[in-house]
């Protein structure tokens, strides 16, 4: 593992298909996402008991694509993983993330710093000869979330070599 300040590149891993239920946040600009995503995390956490088949009630998951996507893929999803998608609570949505291979970086710190740490992961992937999968889903899997202190693994999809 390579350590960089409050981030540690964890290497490459494959995740199985994930079934998610939560809220979809769609905004016009990055600044608006910075305001709206934390609100969605708080709301989802307060309503987690409404979600059936919840796998881990502590592990919040953010999902997004970096390229211009079809309308149905646009935005940022704030979710919990479930075993099966059924009886989606009012106002929530479901999303299925296919199995993918990822470069992974572990981060601990303030939510406002997360966007900036992706450059460390991208640099490491470039140095190791991996190519990003621009059409894949990026994941942010939080084992602790708050506005001031987060523990999160950032998953950047890569093209299998």
TrEMBL record:
<protein>
    <submittedName>
        <fullName>AraC family transcriptional regulator</fullName>
    </submittedName>
</protein>
<dbReference type="Pfam" id="PF14526">
    <property type="entry name" value="Cass2"/>
</dbReference>
<dbReference type="InterPro" id="IPR011256">
    <property type="entry name" value="Reg_factor_effector_dom_sf"/>
</dbReference>
<dbReference type="InterPro" id="IPR010499">
    <property type="entry name" value="AraC_E-bd"/>
</dbReference>
<dbReference type="InterPro" id="IPR029441">
    <property type="entry name" value="Cass2"/>
</dbReference>
<feature type="domain" description="AraC effector-binding">
    <location>
        <begin position="8"/>
        <end position="159"/>
    </location>
</feature>
């Amino acid at each position: 593992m390579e350590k960089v300040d409050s981030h540690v590149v964890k290497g490459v891993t494959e995740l199985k298909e994930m079934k998610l239920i939560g809220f979809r946040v769609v905004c016009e600009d990055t600044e608006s996402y910075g305001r709206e995503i934390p609100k969605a995390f708080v709301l989802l956490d307060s309503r987690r008991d409404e979600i059936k088949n919840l796998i881990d009630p502590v592990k919040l998951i953010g999902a997004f694509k970096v390229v211009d996507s079809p309308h149905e893929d646009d935005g940022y999803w704030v979710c919990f993983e479930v075993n099966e998608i059924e009886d989606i609570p009012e106002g929530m949505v479901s999303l299925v993330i296919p199995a993918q291979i990822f470069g992974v970086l572990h981060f601990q710190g303030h939510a406002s710093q997360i966007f900036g740490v992706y450059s460390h992961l991208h640099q490491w992937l470039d140095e190791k000869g991996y190519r990003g999968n621009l059409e894949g889903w990026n994941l942010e899997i939080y084992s602790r979330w708050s506005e001031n202190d987060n523990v999160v693994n950032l998953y950047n999809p890569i093209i299998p070599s």
